[in-house]
From TrEMBL:
TM stretches of this protein: 20-44
UniProt name for this protein: Mitochondrial elongation factor 1
A Gene Ontology BP annotation from the UniProt entry: positive regulation of mitochondrial fission
Subcellular location per the Swiss-Prot or TrEMBL entry: Mitochondrion outer membrane
Keyword Phosphoprotein: yes
Organism in which the protein naturally occurs: Seriola dumerili
Domain Mab-21-like HhH/H2TH-like as annotated: residue spans: 365-451
Ranges where the Mitochondrial dynamics protein MID51-like C-terminal domain occurs: 150-349
Amino acid sequence: MNFQGSRRRGEDGIAMVIDFLLSNARLVLGVGGAALLGIATLAVKRLIERAGRAADDEKVEQKMAESWEELSLVSASPTLIKRGIEGVVMKHVAKATRQQKADLCQQPQMSSLEVSKPESKSKRLQLCVLSLQERLQQYYNTRAALAPHEVQRAQSLALDICTEIQGFMHSRHPDMPLGEMSLGGSLLDDLQVVSADHACLLVPLKLEASLWSLIPGEQTLLTHPLHWMVRRVNVEYFPKGRSYWDRYLVGGYLSAEAVVSMFNKAVMETINWPSISSTMDCLVRPVLGGPDLRLEIRPRDEKEGAESSDQPLFISMLPLLRQGDVALTAQPELTSPWVNAWHLSLYPWETQRLAQLDAADDGYRRHTLKILKAVCRLNPALRPLKAAPLANLILHLSDSESDWSEISLDVRFQQCITELIGYLEQGALHSYFKPAVNLLSGLSEDQVDQMGFMLYCAVSEPEILFI
């Protein structure tokens, strides 16, 4: 993975030198070295720019010269370049973050605005005196863990919607072979963080075992391990039309896109949502125009009866096929442009494995995962990192680290940050259950740069992730 990108600030002077260095680094250092050099030089450039905004041109030139004199002293050996740049970058990062920490901890003259916000100031002061272990526990309790009443309310709303949709489908499409609808996903598994704002409604489709065959992705023309296909079989003995789902065949395969389109018309565009809204005493409306099946629920204002300003709850309907421990979902947004492809969901395997490991040793793996999810969701630079890479990061680390007790939470958290930097440098984090799947493949160069810079800063000063 090449970290150079277009920096939009490299028109002259030191930026041209950096861009030239990055463009040729792969030849000298190899992929891993070039990746590290890219993140390192990016870190130094941003520190220089930050200093430049607070000083005049002469001071900027002096700081540039001092910074790059240090880099020029590093040997031409790739190994020493790596170690040398790490040292320089870490020194600058540590200096900058120490200054930031000092600025937060010092008590300047209190303005009227500061007097009006004593709670905010006290939180910053606490951040400076707590140990990392204490800060992690505090962050978990205030950001990662959801209040029980909030979870219960979201689950109750989702179950009410589930009951309404199931009743409607049974009355309008009694011949459609559907299993019992249920809730799934992070809200049900106690892995949702920050706020209870989304839920998943699983809609299982019943297939005749003698008429349908689930084909693994590696055995299909798509060759993608997560893109499975559902083939109609035994057509010579059971002609098309014997199965209800034959009407959604495309080229001899059950089309996930056609199934989603059917549910969109049968549910999203047909149900009387205003009537359901009055029954549930909240505003329920479909989110139309996207590739997925989503509902938005907003609570009503008790006084005025109008739409409340509270955060809405989004519920996704997910058509599902199950065979043994294999769960295939109809998600065209993940399998596009293949209309026949179904997505192999690894979420149940990952969640079950984490729960088993924690149950065996009373570990804090799920605890750590929720903290990492909250950090990434609330930090703009880390927001592109979703739950799947973070869960697989912990699963991989669990193979080499056995101590996941509460007292080791800070050590494991720092180790997760270090491991994540390594995966970003390599440009690949392979799925624990499907090694052929690279969970970082959807990230752009600029996103990797931003995440790499933030995580490098967090190595020496982890508290910047909690501000």
